[in-house]
Amino acid sequence: MTPAVLARGVHVTLGGAAILHHVDLTVQTGETVALLGANGSGKSTLVRALVGAVPIDRGTVELLGRPLGRSVAWDRMGYVPQRVTATTGVPTTASEVVTSGTLYGRRLLPPRGARARVLEALDAVGLAAVADRAVRELSGGQQQRVLIARALVRRPDLLMLDEPVAGVDLPSQQAFADALGRLAASGTTILVVLHELGAIAPLIGRAVVLRHGSVVHDGAPPSPAHDHAAAGHEHLHPHTGDTDAGETSDAGVTPTVRLRP
Amino acid sequence: MNAWSELGGMLTDPLMQRALVAALLVGLAAPVIGTYLVQRRLSLLGDGIGHVALTGVAVGWLAGSIMGLAPADALAVPGAVVAAVLGAVIIELVRERGRTSGDVALALLFYGGIAGGVLIISRAGGTSANLMSYLFGSISTVTGADLALTVALSLLVLGTGIGLRTALFAVSHDEEFARAAGLPVRLLNITIAVIAALTVTVAMRVVGLLLVSALMIVPVAVAQLVTTSFRRTMTTGMAIGATVCVLGLTITYWNDVSPGAMIVVLAIGLYAVTATVRPVVLARRRRESGRHDPHPQVPDDVQLTETREA
After folding, report:
1. N or C, which end of chain B has less CB nearby within 10 Å?
2. Chain B nearest C-alpha distance from A133 (Å)
3. From edge to edge, which strands make up the β-sheet containing A66-67?
């Protein structure tokens, strides 16, 4: 079977600095792989190089069995860039941003029934209610989810996400983890850049760790450095098991503030 | 003589008919490309292209006088079209390379354009005074041939700008995402640059090269104050552009002032009024919809041991 992502000996130089040295990466169809590393380790650059947003000096990249370029089946590929915000100069609604995701390759006009697919994609990330609201009125986490919906609207077989939960509020993180879980279960190949595994940890089968632009680990997800997982470490994220028996399943919107008497 | 017969007189004047059609088309077309330029934070691109187009006017004039054409400026507008398109494509390619060096390169291109225009026009046997009608517009001298060119170029701008709106939006909104979707990013960027250049040359006759950018940007700036969607911003901008162009031209039929300046002053006046009225309207709407907490209902990220009374 052809791997969904096949990178061989990828070198990337940006502004005269060598960011990636000889990176090999294979993601098999149906896998969920996390790309981990400290800030500045090159993990974002690697994903951007894989989708063609950053030029590659040496090496080869194949997406879904085709070399990076015009012949790639872009309609089967979804990408979520790292963003703090989805706003721009001109007021834009969430559905307009997602509609731009229906274009790919040589398709420059939205397909028939684009509106229904846009609403479906927004619904998948829990934002159907704000489809026609201006993006600038949404919270940072909601804006990030709009960008995820933009990648999902093509119903991709391969999804690449760059730090999708950085600076995102907790309900959005949970909604995101749920959406990602459904996609993985339906057979979508996922490559996700993360700073820490967090709420997505249960989905991750394999982790690739970059350090100084080279792969230093490829295998089972590593345990967090320092005392992140130690007994004394106060976790500030809600976990799926945290809800009490009496609480409903919508843990994301239930206040978790506990007032000690 | 009443107001109606005055208006009838204006509408039956063939000179004024041509001018009104040109003004209407330019008013509709300029905000279309303006919306994309504001989206990519390139509001002053139109201004830069205008400077370069001036050299095109002078080169066209020079070519016309060398060939001995009857009106010496017969090739001025075609010259402006060629120079504007070339300039816009160069600006786009420089922008693609990187922003820091691009900034200086753009400045060189702008001022080179205007200085080149003034030098070449004097070689062509004209004076800088001949350039005035291109710098500030000369809509009252629109000929039948001028109008045909204006109509053709306006329809091209409107057709491309509206027909390809999703793709042009995609590349203006998030270039990296467009690249990662396999879209022909450079081709789309150059398309925006070329239709911006065509808009500049079309609007040159109506408001003049120095005020072209205003007609592209100000209607969009007004529209932005009252809209929440890209589509609505573009259509509102087009309506505002068409209205101020036709209204400004009509006013100058009875008052001997520059139509281009009148149109731009009207547009900026509309911006001032809208910006003043908007907070009042928003406050009233908020009062009518009742008090509501603007913060989303989100659980706290910390465990509070005690809270103060809210």
Report:
1. C
2. 7
3. A17-27, A5-14, A58-63, A66-67
Phi, psi of A158 (to 5 degrees): -130, 125
d(CA A87, CA A92): 7
CA angle A68, A111, A181 (to 5 degrees): 65
* Token reading at B291: 């008090």
Do the interacting molecules here have an ipTM over 0.85?
no
Residues 6+ apart with CB under 8 A from A29: A1, A2, A3, A4, A157, A187, A189
Count other Cβ atoms within 10 Å, centred on residue A193.
24
Question: What is the rounded CA–CA span in Å between residue B130 and residue B136?
Answer: 11
- Residue A28, φ and ψ in degrees, nearest 5: -75, 155
Query: With a threshold of 0.80, does the pTM exceed it?
Result: yes
Using an 8 Å Cβ cutoff, are A60 and A7 in contact?
A: yes
Would you call B283 exposed, middle or buried from its count of C-beta atoms within 10 A (0-12, 13-18, 19+)? exposed
Q: Are A177 and A167 in contact (CB under 8 A)?
A: no
Residues A45, A90 contacting (CB under 8 angstroms):
no
Cα A102–Cα A105–Cα A106 angle in degrees, nearest 5:
100
Is A90 within 8 Å of B302 when comparing Cβ atoms?
no
Chain B hits for A152, CB-CB cut-off 8 Å, are none
Q: Chain-centre distance of CA B189, in angstroms?
A: 17
Cα A166 to Cα A194: distance, rounded to the nearest angstrom = 8
Q: Mean pLDDT in each 10-residue stretch from start to end of chain A (261 residues)?
A: 87 86 91 88 90 89 89 90 74 93 90 91 88 87 88 92 80 80 90 84 88 87 60 46 38 38 40
Report whether pLDDT(B91) > 50: yes
What is the C-alpha separation between A195 and A165, in angstroms, rounded? 9
3-state secondary structure of A26: strand
pLDDT in tens, B150-160: 899 999 999 99
Question: Which tokens in the block code for residue B294?
Answer: 């603007």
Residue A108: phi and psi, rounded to 5, are -105, -5
Interface of B with A (CB under 8 A): 35, 38-41, 164, 166-167, 169-170, 172-174, 176-184, 188, 220, 224, 227-233, 296-307
In degrees rounded to 5, what are phi and psi of residue A52? 90, 10
* Residues B199, B201, B206, B211, CA torsion sign: positive
Instruction: Find the CB nearest B167 among A79, A89, A103.
Output: A103
- Return the exposure string of B124-155: e unless at least 16 CB atoms fall within 10 Å of the residue's CB, then b: bebeeebbebbbbbbbeebeeebbebbeebbe
